[in-house]
Amino acid sequence: MVLKNLNEKNSIIMLAILTVIILLIPLSIRLLIYDNSLIGSESYYHARIAQTIADDGILTTDQLSYGGATYLLNPYHLVISNLSKVIPLNSLLKITPFIFGILSFILFYLILKKLKVDLKTRFLTNLIFLSSPIFIYLFTSPNQHSIPFVLTLLTFYFFISKQKYFLIPLISVIIIPLFGLFHAITLILLLASYITITRKRLKRFMILFFAVLITSFLKFIPLYLQYTLPTTPSFLTFNLFNMFISDFGASMAFGIFTLFLSFIGFASIKKNHQDIIFYLLAILMIIISYHIPYLRIYLNLITSFLTASAIFLLLKRKWELKLIKTLTILVMMCGLIFSTTSYINRISHSDPDNEITLSLEWLNNQPKGVVFSHYSKGLWIESIANKPTVMDELFDYAPNVEQRYNHSHIIFNSRNIKTTTELLDKYNVRYIWLDKKMKTGQVWEKENQGLLFLLKNSERFKRAYHLGEVEIWTYT
User: Fold this and answer.
1) Is position 463 within any domain?
2) Which domain does 379 fall in, by range?
3) Is residue 190 part of a domain?
4) What is the spatial distance between Cα 206 and Cα 245, in angstroms, rounded to a whole number?
């Protein structure tokens, strides 16, 4: 019924209202239940680095991460640190993702319109896009990829527009590579696909291509001459479920029904020489996104369109039994809604909760010292407690990642006091921070395993803080 009475005006209004609601729900829950705390762990890292740059200028070494890890300048931190001089940082970190989310929805809508996608498909594609877990992930918390994503959409829109707007995409393509090489490569692939299919604007593409190439060379050649390409640590294990499907707990992934419908939409594309470019681009992005997860923010644009195409295919198809058709469509729509609502609920109630935040605020007021914990807690400890950690989630260019992980594993699981204390001394550990997840599967399965046994049975350890399921022990 909504699609039958759709027009340009109410299409924009409905999508805009829904975008605002989807983006505000997690922020409202964090405000009401979790004392307005940020979502996730990277948010706290961005906040800390931006504040450090605002206070002390550009840094080359992060003294809290791994007790001294190389810091490579991120343009996102420069933008946030400069804006924080006008808008309070805590407010800024919530306002900017929201604004970028609105801009991305508008630009995607205008791009589809410029590509002459019919109104109903355009509406449904945007509806799926803005209710997707990836969209929610990208625009409900501070994220370094939100700016280049919006700039990429902006570049593509003005690239396919009139010649007089060419200066805007030219400026954008100079900026985009500064945020990451894969953003630049994705932009070039999108533009190349467009000119291959339409055979238009080849000269404009060549200008933008060389602009991207020059900026990328200036940015990355000196970087990779000094540092090797970052690699994924061997202790991180992935599979298709926890990598690509949000319903199985992945943070930046697709709903299972979106994937299923997008495959139907993919298979329904006409097999001609022009559409083969679309096939190749989609397949290439899927393969690369296994190794570069953030590429999925662009793949999400394609899957949203394919999912909408699949839904219209099911609606137009002749069914012998209308009841089966109705039930099939109903199951698919309910599945899409479930993926969205469950993901919103999950990130809205994600850590750090109040217990974690209070414990780290207490730790912030204690004497200086290195904190030992699971690496997934590192960014919170560094940002809220302002204490260096043995290890955190920033693996790229971090010192001795594999060794630190192996030593952490030994500390967690050994009951040998000599072995444990030697390793704690090696990293100058003064505090040990534990929470419920660590004690219920993330590190230990039983109560008196490894370090848990030593904490209770050695005079070298003393419990200094305890609130709910969070404990902080001192080591002497």
Assistant:
1) yes
2) 354-475
3) no
4) 37
- Most confidently predicted of 238-252, 290-304, 329-343, 373-387: 373-387
pLDDT category, 361, cuts 50, 70, 90? Answer: very high
Q: What is the pLDDT of residue 450?
A: 93
Kindly state whether residue 366 falls inside one of the protein's structural domains.
Answer: yes
Asked if residue 203 is part of any domain, the answer here is no
What does the pLDDT average to over 280-305? 83
Structure tokens, 10:
């109410």
Asked if residue 52 lies in contact with residue 383, where contact means CB atoms within 8 angstroms, the answer is: no
Encode pLDDT of 428-456 as tens digits.
999 999 999 999 999 999 888 999 999 99
**Structure-token pair, residue 45:** 């890292």
Query: pLDDT averaged over the chain?
Result: 88
Asked if pLDDT for residue 238 goes beyond 80, the answer is: no
Euclidean distance between CA atoms 475 and 456, whole angstroms: 12
How many structural domains does the chain have? 1
Half-sphere exposure for 312 (CA within 13 Å, toward CB): 21
Note the pTM of the prediction, 2 decimals.
Answer: 0.92
The pLDDT value recorded for residue 1 is 47
- Give the other-Cβ count within 10 Å of 71's Cβ: 19
Tokens 């060419």 identify what position? 166
Give the CATH number of the domain where residue 407 resides.
3.40.50.12610
